[in-house]
Amino acid sequence: MFIFNSSIGKKFIQAVSGAFLVIFMLLHSTINFFSVIDSFTGKYGAVASDEALFSKGDGLFKLGCDFMSTPVIDIMVPILALGFLVHILYGCWLTWQNIRARGGWKRYEVSSKAAADSWSAKNMLVLGIVILGFIFYHLSHFWAKMQLPEMFGIGTFENNPYLLLNATFGQWWQVLLYLCWFAALFLHLTHGFWSMFQTVGWNGQTWFKRTKVIGVIVAALIVLMLSATAVNAFLQANGIIG
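Below the sequence we write its predicted C-alpha cells.
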C-alpha cells in the first residue's frame, strides 16, 4: 500500500499518531492544572468520603480524574496506548531506515533551513527515548494506582488523587526530574508540531511561520500547566501554601 511503502505515507502515519497524542497531552495537562486552580479556591485535597464518580464537594482536579475513569475514557485507553506504540515504534523504524539509507549514523534530513538549525529537529530520537523512559516512571506514580486497579483489578486503588500528587512531588528531586522531562517534552513537541503540518502539505512560507508559532504556543501551554502542577503540589505537600 502507498501509505506504508512511500516516504510520504510513512511520515503521514507518524504525523497523525503525533497529532492524536498532542490532543491527549492538552487534555491531560488541563486536568492536572485543575489542582492548581483548587489551591486558589480552597478545594485542594477535597474528596468526598464515597467512591462514586462526580461526588458533591469534590475538588475540580478530583472531578477531572473522575472524568478519566468514565467508560468512554476506559475505551480510549487502549487506543491511546496503541497511538503511543505506533508513534514510538514508527519513529524508531524511520530513524533506522534513514541510517541505513545514508550508510551510517546521520541526523534527520530536513528540507528547510529552520529545521536544519533546530537542535530538537536533529535530536528527535534522543528526546523521544528520554520521554518514553519517563512515561513509564510517571505511570508507576499515577496510572498504576488509579486506572490499573480499576480496569484490571491489579494493585490497590487510590481514590484521592491529591495524595498521589503530594507523594510524587513532595520531594524536590522528584520535581526536578519531572521538570527536566517537561523540558524534553517541550523540545519534542515544538519540532513535532510544525513537522506534522509540513507532512500534510502546509509547508508554504506563510503557513510554515504560523505553524511554528502555534507549535511553540501549544507546547508552552502544555509544559507550563504540567510544571505548575508539579510545583504547586510540592508547595502543598510541604505546607508552604494551603
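The longest helix spans residues 7-41.
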